[in-house]
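Marked as duplicate of an earlier ticket. Keeping the data here for the record.
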Amino acid sequence: MSELNNSLLGIVYLLKTRLQICVIKTRNLFFVKYLNRNVQMLTLLKLSENKKMAERNRLILWGWFSLEIIKNKLIPDMEKNVLQFGVSSPIAYQKFQNNKYAPNSLYFHHSYAESDIPIGQKYTKIALMDNYKILQNSIQTCYSEVICFFTCNPKMQPSEQAMRGHHESSLIQFKQGIPQMIYNELFEITELPFSPAKKQICLY
């Protein structure tokens, strides 16, 4: 009888131990699933935030300035404005002086900025737009950086940022060479003033 009781107690203890192990495993599994779900949610939120930031900081280019108009109009006008009104942004002015003819760079006039965009802003994508809608099959990887922004006329000068709601000009450098898309599709500005064309290029 004693041996039977001991056997039963042993079985009960074994079952109880296995039940506790099952409970622990279930709790651990639930915790892992809960943790994974939260990580996924945070990742999605981060991606969403990055997408919104890219949209806010994107540049919609209206046209690129020809070398002739840069040398004969833009740069002389800016130098006159600096002499007449003083340097409005020493940091931007120095960046401009050091990089005015940087390799693989172009001067652009762009649409109204959707946020305050600082100099040094970097982009990884380029796409063709038709009436401000991105053509999905035109999206390409393109590493570029804003060297300098410029305020609009009549007091055009180097600026540290593109101000939200303003259309301004910029000097942008392309790390792997100027994309052919720009020359093929974007309007070349050879005289001022000019009227924006139907096609635009977006950096984001």
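See parent ticket for discussion. The first strand starts at residue 59 and ends at 65.
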